Amino acid sequence: MFGRMIRGTLFRQWKKMLMIAFTIALGASLASAMLSVMLDVGDKVNQELKTYGANIRVVPKSASVLSGLYEVEDGGTGGYIREDELGKIKTIFWTYNIVDYAPFITVDAALENGEKVKVVGSWFDHHLSLPTGEELDAGLESMRSWWELESGAWIDEQKESSGKEAMVGTELAGKLGLSVGSRISLAGKESSDTFTVCGIFDAGGDEDNEIYIQLDNAQALGGLDNKVDSIDVSALTTPDNELAERAAKDPKSLTVAQYELWYCTAYASSICWQIQQALTDCVASPVRQVADSEGEILNKTELLMILITILSLIGAALGICNLVTASVMERSQEIGLMKAIGAYNGSVSLLVLTEVFVTAVIGGTAGFFAGFGFAQIIGHSVFGSSIALRPMVIPIVAVLVFIVTMIGCIPAIRMLLGLRPTEVLHGK
Amino acid sequence: MKKRRMFIRMITASLMRRRSRMIVALLSIAIGATILSGLVSIYYDVPRQLGAEFRNYGANMIMTAADGSFTSADMEKGKKAVPSAELVGAAPYRYENIRLRENPVVAAGTDPEQARAASPYWLIDDGEWLQNSGELLIGAKVADSFRLKVGDDIELSFTPEAEREAAAENKTADDNYKTFRIVGILKTGGTEEEYVYMTMGDLEELTGVSDKIDLVELSVSASSDKLGEYAEDINLSVPSVHASLVKRVTASETTVLSKLQALVLLVTVVVLALTMICVATTMTAVVAERRREIGLRKAIGASNSSIIKEFMGESMLLGFFGGTVGSVLGYVFASQVSIRVFSSSISFRPLLVPITIIISIIVTGLSSLMPIRSATEVDPALVLKGE
Amino acid sequence: MSLLELKNVYKIYGELHALDDVSLKVEKGEWVSIMGPSGSGKSTMMNIIGCMDKPSKGEVLLDGVDISKESSKNLTTIRRDKIGLIFQQFHLVNYLTAVENVMLAQYYHSIPDEKEALEALERVGLADRAKHLPSQLSGGEQQRVCVARALINYPEIILADEPTGNLDEANEEIVVDLFHKLHNEGTTLIVVTHDPEVAEVAQRRLVLRNGKLAKEVINENFTGKIRFTDQ
């Protein structure tokens, strides 16, 4: 009979129950959309902030102390990173957080007229097939997104004929009167070669006076086989906190538990530490301009989203609560009748609660999927990628909907229990 | 005249004597209005606030000498092109090769306060920020290679232009000396770690050459289009200076900031739409409850239009109160968010108050219109007999 | 001319003939009661006379106007001007005081006048309870407010639907006495009721059965005197 009564309300009073279900669905969709977006916004914004370029720079150990301090004429003090070790960067614990990296080798070369220019060898869209099965196109094209190509195109490493191409900074190109298609011959310490200009770029910095060619070409010019003098790494990182700052100074000062926590969190400092361990004789350090600012912006955006989420959760909760109260109270007559024919308070409350609960489950489920849909709309239109479904959203929304509907029922049930059947049945 | 008074009397009676129901409705409208005004305030303020956060990336415009070097008067002239409200920091730098324990080191003279404002990401790893004359801030790599620490006193020397030849000819040059105390060690992860920093005055004293600037780093809180205009202005008005944008910072800021704004906009739209629907359903429920009363009014001779007028009047009054409460609470919420997230206050937008109130009135009005209409269309006899 | 005249009125819901060829005349100042078991068509007839429903066939002349042809908007106007309704469940607006409930009828009719509304309450003996809300009034008091509301606009007809259905005996007597008073003042009364005691005091008693007028009884002993109290 109980089941029949519930079915009766749900099917015969479906209009009213639909209204409750609809409001619960609205609230639940609001909650799940905001929670999904909030939980994912860190990763998404982090991806966006990658346009600022590398947040970690790796240099050889010896160079990290000496380079730049002494203007050493021969362009190096013997400290280099080995090119064949580059792949190891993608073997560290946080390998999936490393989204991009590019090695650099700088050599001095002379032009035909004897003028010296700085030639940088690097990756542009270097294709990496990692032992883990991951495929990655790494290089400057994505790591220097702010470079503006004035003419021509990026060096395409995947093209057969790209071997002897060069990209020239706008100032140098202006000085030398170079344009796309021009040929320049460069004489390095070890060998010389002729390159075709395939692009002229404006970087708004020192790079505007440099020539960029592929890594192996530059190594050949300088006779620096298998040598790299710095690596730029773009990694998704967690904003630093006190632990990370302490660890950055000296990881050995941490307790074992702290070390574990630090090592297993994607702080810039722990990624640096892991890179240092993976490569021989190198020093990896966060580029504070990028890493620190990233942290600031990430923290602020996340906090902002959390506050907006809290506001919308409160809104959703009160909305649901309100409507449940209003619509249960509306049924006072029916419930008065039940009491008149001998229903106990307990069984009346149970009936009302079950009805509302069934409605809440239906509405909440519908709302959850709708909300996830809203989150996708936000994800696709803002970041151009979908928002991941976080399993933790489901229990949060479920508990929220449950608590809120039950709270909404309390005043209504209190009122119903106080009802005297005669008053209700004889009208007001 | 009398009729209007009765109208008002009825509405106030309904609002005052059906207090619990009205509070339910009012609460729901007020929440809707709070979310509306709060989110819209945030939406309008976020670009400004986030823009300020992006200044953490440091200088987005630099002034270099068009030819050789320039003076601080040129710098001041150049700075005038940028509205002072948008100027976060303008740090002049002068670089000289000096010697530290007979090894060459690049020394930079600057205005410490401005440098700090323009490059907020600089980390003083140990010690404190450079403040006074006689103090020296050294890059982490310098500290490392010379094994220097905070508190050490160190003598720097500089060979003036006139003495360079003497030095080249292996004669003892008549160098300038000055002793500094190391107050801090600078970490940036960039080339700054290879320099030593001192006040502009100290560098002038050490070199014996004054009023010379190599570079000014400007951190300006403005869009990249505007920055471009300022740079052009400077280039036109101060011929000795060449201003250019730091593309890496400006281009990336435009991309990321626009995404973040789009995010806040979309979130605002979604939350608002859902909240307004929520308010509408509550109002619908509140009005639908009064079908019997509507039937009675019809039975004793009320025309449909007068019923609609009364009930709408009541709903709209609720909308007005809810909107008023909500616009205040929304402002409180927005300023709390602003203080907590960006540690700055939010500007009060007076226009938002009437807009919030009007939207609340419209939403409540529209959402109660439907159930009122459906109740008036039913025969009063049916309604009075009860379902 | 009669105040109210029904000519061969039918009300048909699908197969069911709720009213089946009913003809009836009510003169000005008359006190008529309509009796009948449930489903006999009482409520339908009451709704039609009260301008809340229209017949399927036939004419209903109220003051010479055929209300079966009027639009529902005009029906509202006619109801407002000519008819005072009294309900079994009283139907007072629960957030308005007694006097405000009476004024509500004035408000829709013409212009609310608190003094006049108080006088109406005084006529039903409720002057001292004018400022009370319906929830603070007893059933009988609520019904008297309802009567005051019905007569405030001097309607041609007062139409009462089971006016004593929700009242105890003492209150029933008070309401019946009120009807006497109204009758003596010249008001036309049509009372639909189950209760033989209430029906019998009327001048004329009509009995409906299966939608047809089955019996008409003239009250020979009608005195118009107030029976129960000396008010």
Q: What labels describe this entry?
A:
heterotrimer; B: 387 residues; alpha+beta; 6-stranded mixed beta barrel; 13 helices; 10 strands; C: 231 residues; alpha/beta; Rossmann fold; 4-stranded antiparallel beta sheet; 7 helices; globular
Could you characterize the architecture of this molecule?
The complex is a heterotrimer of chains A (428), B (387) and C (231). With 428 residues, chain A is α+β, with helices and mostly antiparallel strands. Chain A has 14 helices and 14 strands. In chain A, helix 12 runs antiparallel to helix 13. The longest helix of chain A has 42 residues. About 3% of the residues of chain A have low confidence. Chain B is of the alpha+beta class. Chain B folds into two domains: 182 residues, no CATH class; 186 residues, no CATH class. In chain B, 58% of the residues lie in helices and 18% in strands. In chain B, strand 2 and strand 3 form a beta hairpin. The longest helix of chain B is centred in the last third of the chain and has 42 residues. The model of chain B has no long low-confidence stretch (mean pLDDT 84). With 231 residues, chain C is α/β, with parallel strands linked by helices. In chain C, strands 6-7-8-3-9-10 form a six-stranded mixed sheet, with helices on both faces. Chain C has a four-stranded antiparallel sheet with strand order 2-1-4-5, with helices on one face. Chains in contact: A-B, A-C, B-C.
Short summary:
The complex is a heterotrimer of chains A (428), B (387) and C (231). Chain A is 51% helix and 18% strand. By secondary structure, chain A is an alpha+beta fold.
Structural class of chain B: alpha+beta
Radius of gyration based on Cα positions of chain C = 17 Å
Q: Please state the structural category of chain C.
A: alpha/beta
CATH architecture of chain C: 3-Layer(aba) Sandwich
Assembly state: heterotrimer
Largest beta-sheet details of chain B? 6 strands, mixed, barrel
Top CATH class of chain C:
Alpha Beta
**Number of helical segments with 4 or more residues of chain B:** 13
Low-confidence stretches of chain C: none
Gross geometry of chain C: globular
What do we call the CATH homologous superfamily of chain C? Answer: P-loop containing nucleotide triphosphate hydrolases
- Give the DSSP E fraction of chain B (strand runs of 2 or more residues): 15-25%
